[in-house]
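Worked example 3. Consider a protein that binds adenosine-5'-triphosphate.
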Amino acid sequence: MTQEPFDILFVEDDPEFSSGYVRWFEKHGHSVEHATTGQEAVSRCDQREFDIIVLDWNLPGLSGLELVQRMCDDNPDTEIIVLTGEGTIEKAVESMRRGVFDFLSKPFSMSGLERRCKAALERRRLKMENARLREVIDRVRTPNHQMIGDSKPMIALSRLIDRVAPTDKAVLIQGESGTGKELVAQAIHAGSPRANRPLVTINCAALPEQLVESELFGHEKGAFTGATAAKPGLFEIADQSTLFIDEIGELPLSLQPKLLRVLEDGSLRRVGSHKERRVKVRIVAATNRDLQQEVVAHRFREDLFYRINVMSLDLPPLRKRTGDIGLLVDHFLGNDWEIEADARAALLNYRWPGNIRQLINTIDRAQILADDGVITIEDLPVEMTERKKEIVSETTSAEDRSIYAVMRAHLLDVLKREQGNKTQAAQILGVDRRKLYRMLLQYDIGE
Ligand SMILES: Nc1ncnc2c1ncn2[C@@H]1O[C@H](COP(=O)(O)OP(=O)(O)OP(=O)(O)O)[C@@H](O)[C@H]1O
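Given these inputs, the predicted complex is written out as structure tokens:
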């Protein structure tokens, strides 16, 4: 069970009791506030969030049950312990039914109350952890932190990741789409003391502006049309962990001050709420825009830029580390596949504008098209082999003996002999009709 201090609100009208609680809990390192009426308790909880509320059943004003109901409804993330002078089973059962964590009859020992508070805190943690795990299960795409590449820039990058990961510093990852920014964020989180908690991710480009705010900061019930229940934001879900903000360059200007505030002092308010909440979150952000340029163009706040850019990692595009292409091809092909030399050459020579994501998709597609576990040049998209064709035509002499030219001439020859009959041509070539059609496309042979 945790020994961490907690934030607690005592709601008790008897001054003798309340000063006793406050002194005892403060002495044991907890942060304590005190209210003497139900109404005061409600307004305190409006201002800020507590881990635990210890509530006396007999207060002036609202009845015990009314107050319990109100506190449970308004503070779904806070655990509530009810105290009473004359404990009855009915009250206990009714309170528990409404969501109260525990019920304690006076008199009780302070250490007994502290034990119950710790158990309550543990339940709160578990609930938050559950919410986090659900979030992560929803968001998990590739649970793979393995970064392939032994080019100079990749070795330098790995070193930087090792340095920066164990710190709490904000990191900005910059690079073209598909270069592995999310993978780097996962590696930073995995190497940090927060690694036992899930990495929480948001992609600012994937959501409309109004949704980004409620996703990041949460919302209260009724905050806007469709907000049928209160929902914690990703900052709350990522408390004590890492929040990966992908495509931060797309974050609307109107939300940037709110992000700046939570980065500065860890405080935030859900949409539709006055209540201040506190979180401890490490930020890793990524962008494929030039953020400095965005600052100059007044689309990104300069103060926010400096906050998130404590440490910046630049991911080189694949065309600037061509030495890694072969390794990546072998890795994504797997052990059961082979690739013919001209197909490999086409991959090595391609410029990969979509970087590693495009390379993975290309290999997936080729594996679907290929026969017998061997990838041939016909299994690659035409733009890659067009390039190969360019290379061939750039490098061959008048008497063109390249594989490409020889194959094309042979295909034309067979088709001519069979008077364009594709079924017969395929038979002679020893391929099926599907493959013949792909070859015609590949070798630029029209109908
Ligand atoms: N060095 C690498 N080794 C192995 N796989 C990699 C590497 N870099 C990226 N990948 C893989 O490439 C794919 C794309 O990477 P990722 O999603 O991290 O890119 P990104 O830069 O975040 O893209 P975007 O900007 O479009 O969001 C993922 O499947 C990822 O696992």
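Take a moment to read the result before moving on. Residues 142, 144, 147-149, 175, 177-183, 246, 286, 288, 356-357, 360 surround adenosine-5'-triphosphate (CB under 6 Å). The chain has three domains: 7-123, 140-316, 320-442.
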